Amino acid sequence: MTEPADAAARRAIAPVICYPVETLPVPPMETYRSARAGATRTGEVLVPPREAACFRVPAGHFFRIVSVDGPQVGDLNLWAADDLSERFYSGKTRALHGTHVTVGDRLWSCFPHLRPMATITEDTLGWYGIDEHGGSVHDVIGTRCDPYTHRLLSGGDYHHCCHSNLTRALAAELGMPRTEAEPHVHDVLNVFMCTGFTRDTGQYFMKASPVRPGDFIEVFAEIDLLGCLSACPGGDCSSEHSSDTAACHPLLVEVFAPAPGALDGWHPPPRNAYSRSHGA
Predict the structure, then answer these.
(1) In which band, very low, low, confident or very high, does the pLDDT at 61 lie, cut at 50, 70 and 90?
(2) What pTM does this model have?
């Protein structure tokens, strides 16, 4: 196509933020930090390499995802514990907070609920920022590695993609067939994964995660949560993300309960107040 004479002027138009967030309720971070200071650990789940595991977090508790043994990324799904139709909405989280999330950002649920499910309160990789390639950590742009795309691109079957891992773990947790569990698996928070978009072709890329053993991300549960975390078969995702040859390591999920009274006056956020009339 021939470039128009005013191409430079068109490209020079300043961008506009789609969803200004100044009117969003500000999470009470000092309240959360105070509650966390006196919290006690109530449980843990170790997620094996190339597998997934479920965990539950009551509203007002914290959960921490920890790198152990070696650099490893994880794919996280979240649901309202009492209603699987309310699940993490990575697209709206991305639209509100950006392509990657860190302390103070919230993980939002899908329509028609659209409320904070959780708030990130600690992140030992918060120092990473955005690197020279445009990469950053904890992305809400990737969907999860899955056996369908794997077959499309390679012609083969691979059963330890994160989508399959999450499906198996959710089915086992809920005691339902995998065919019934699979539709509940959704786009993820890619914990510890370092990703971005190439400048020339706009393609989604990954690179070696900066995570090291002992690094963690910690999250406050705004509602009762059912979580499922897959230890990605790509390990640190430095070369490929569906692989039996990449070095993989477990991930640890820890749950912490605040001391009695530490959250007096705090309440889980209500579901979105839109009438659902849609103009009718």
Answers:
(1) very high
(2) 0.97
